[in-house]
Specification:
mainly alpha, 104 residues, 7 helices, 434 Repressor (Amino-terminal Domain)
Length: 104
Amino acid sequence: MNIKKNFGKKIKEKRLERNLTQEQLAEKIGISPKSLSQIELGNNFVSAENLELICNALSISPKVLFDFDNMEINEQACIEYITSKIQENNKLLNLVYRFLVAVE
């Protein structure tokens, strides 16, 4: 697990949920958009002060940004699970098929 990368992904996820650009969030917390980009990419980490500013700007607690459960998915385990569920239920196969056709 890469804490900096996962932390950055969470910031980006929460920023996008609030329909904020990097520029808008960076302005709210007083850093450059490039600095925020480096944090979101997991190349840099935040100071305690900037962590507090980010949380305030996004209206979340720090705990939200450090909750990495279900972030990293084992691709093979995911494929095996979905395949087994589809094999058990023909209606699910139909639903998955229609969903995939619709999103293409």
